[in-house]
Amino acid sequence: MSERLKAWYLLLALGFVTLLLLSFLGRPPAALSSAVALPQRLVYTASVNLRGFLEGGRDRRDLRAEVVRLENELATSRARIRTLELANARYAETVKLRVVQSPGVVMSAPVVSAGVGAVGGTLELGLGRAAGVLADMPVTVADGLVGVVTRVSDKTAWVRTLVDPASSIGVSVQGRGGQGIAVGEAGGVVRVTDYREETPVEVGDVVETSSRGGLFPRGITVGRVVRLLPKDANALTREFLVRPSANLETLLEVALIRPL
User: Fold this and answer.
1) What is the residue extent of each domain of the chain?
2) Pick from 177, 248, 246: nearest CA to 212
3) What is the pLDDT of residues 5-49, one digit of tens each?
């Protein structure tokens, strides 16, 4: 038996003896009262301290529970604020693109997966027919053209990017005039073919969409000329390579334009 337990038993015994003496003697002698007063005070003090300890423990548990509840509420509020911030940023980007690219920009969509590589590229979007996404919607970002929507399900859409070999986009060179067709090329570039130039094209020139083909709004940046291909002396057209302005492998959000 531990010393602490022995002490408790002793205190309880003294209290019991005190009750017996009081019942037989009536008013106990002063000496006896003094002898038993100290153990009684100890028992009382110990009980008060024990009650205070238990109540303090309960209060601490309640406080910890309240702290956990408030922390959860704070995390939820922060998540809601972040959602609103992202929604506001998407709206602001949509408004900006309506001004600088096309008034037909109708929505933005998250990119949930990208398959851009040396051969070609596709993007999977996190919105589909239920959100108003349609096939043949041009897809763009602030840096420039991305591609066009080719397939749509209820909640998902797939984009054929401009570096896909199946891609075909009518283009012109900014400030130079002329028109041609841009098709996807190995290495993540675009080859402009059948280009009838009005003024000689130079490396670094900006290539943008034209009205040729009728699929894309005119004036959306495609990229910059990175290489002029050799031209036959008797040829009426020329070819050159263009590096897309949009980084197709790191896109998080894209804008969709109403089909023409």
Assistant:
1) 1-100, 105-260
2) 177
3) 565 556 566 555 555 545 544 454 554 445 445 555 655 565 666
- C-beta separation of 158 from 236 below 8 A: no
Q: What is the pLDDT of residues 97-130, one digit of tens each?
A: 766 667 788 888 999 987 654 445 789 999 999 9
Please say whether the beta carbons of 146 and 116 come within 8 A.
Answer: no
**CA 197 to chain centroid:** 44
Q: 201 and 214 in contact (C-beta within 8 Å)?
A: no
Assigned token pair, 103: 């008034």
Tokens of 123: 């993007």
Residue type, 195: Y
Residue 186: CB partners within 8 Å, gap ≥ 6? 118, 119
Structure tokens at 48: 């008060």
Cα 244 from chain centre: 25
The tens digit of pLDDT for each residue in 65-88 reads 777 777 787 777 777 776 666 666
Q: CATH number of the domain at 105-260, out of 3.90.226.10, 2.40.50.1020, 1.10.760.10, 2.40.10.350?
A: 2.40.10.350
112: left (phi over 0), alpha (psi -120 to 50) or beta: alpha
Q: H/E element holding 151? A: strand 144-152
The tokens for 91 are: 């709206």
CA atoms within 13 A on the CB side of 198: 8
**DSSP state at residue 11:** H
pTM of the model: 0.64
Nearest alpha carbon to residue 139 among 161, 117, 155: 161
Residue 35 per-residue DSSP state: H
Give the pair of three-digit tokens for residue 188.
């993540």
C-alpha 193/C-alpha 170 separation (Å) is 10
